[in-house]
Amino acid sequence: MAAPSKPSSASPGLLNPKTAHREFFGFPGAVSVMTITVSVVYTWYFSCNEHDGCQLPLTSARWNHVVTSAIDYQSYFSLQALKYVAMWWAWLAILYLVLPARKIEGVTLRNGQRLKYPISGLTSLLVTVFTAVAVYAQRGFAPFLWIADHYFQLATASIVFSTSLAAFVYLYSFRHSSVERENKPVVMLALAGNSGNPVYDFFIGRELNPRIGSLDIKYFCELRPGIMGWVLLN
Questions:
Q1: 187, 179, 180: which is closest to 206 by C-alpha?
Q2: Residues 58, 47: contact at Cβ < 8 Å?
Q3: Best label site of 25, 27, 85, 224, fewest CB within 10 Å?
Q4: What is the pLDDT of residue 41?
């Protein structure tokens, strides 16, 4: 999160102006992106996978199979996969917090402050790769084959985890007022995420710099879990 702003003589609400322009066509676009991206993943899996092969184009019977398979969530939702996804994020968060790193200041924010960010992505990747090599030396391919055999369960777990994290970040942005008051902490909102529409603001990201301690959630999530995960998967 952005640090509390200093008392200001500016008029209330100036720090967090109301969103004037909505991206992605506003509310309809936000809903469409969130639903279509997930739907595409499930549609492609149920229409083209290692069990049934690829049957394209999709016939009406095949669409019925896709819908029926999607409803049977027990076949692709796994608490074990969710646990491993959470452990993966926790591992990277620990590396983010404990690895020695050069810290640089970001751009000047609307309250005049500049946040610091650790430049430790490459170090975290190398530590993760060396750890994976050590796991392979001790246990062979078995852990990595488990990932390959359960990739769809892991995809589902990733969707559940990331959506839950996004919901937390959205609700977390309400911990303080977004209107400047003397000697009161204030949350700095994203210029595009202060529309007042909860679905749109959830999609865009309401708070500009959501932080827990020194962990900047947006900065952390932008590349580390996904890009480093791809390295291991590939």
A1: 187
A2: yes
A3: 25
A4: 86
The CA distance from 30 to 21, in Å, is 14
Q: Are 19 and 193 in contact (CB under 8 A)?
A: yes
Torsion on CA atoms 147, 152, 158, 160, rounded to nearest 10:
-140
Write the DSSP symbol of residue 100. Answer: -
Assess contact for 108 and 114: CB atoms under 8 A. Answer: yes
Q: Model pTM? A: 0.83
Separation of alpha carbons 51 and 48, rounded Å: 8
The alpha carbon of 163 is separated from its chain's Cα centroid by a whole number of angstroms, namely 7
Note the pLDDT tens digit of each residue in 1-30.
Answer: 444 444 333 344 478 999 989 999 999 999
SS3 of residue 92 by DSSP: helix
Residue identified by tokens 């995420």 is 193
Question: In the 3-class helix/strand/coil scheme, how is 203-219 assigned residue by residue?
Answer: HHCCECCCEECCEEHHH
CA dist., res. 111 & res. 107, Å (int) = 11
Chain segment 48-101, per-residue pLDDT in tens: 766 667 766 667 777 777 788 778 777 788 999 999 999 999 999 999 999 999
Secondary structure element (H or E) that encloses residue 105, with its range: strand 102-105
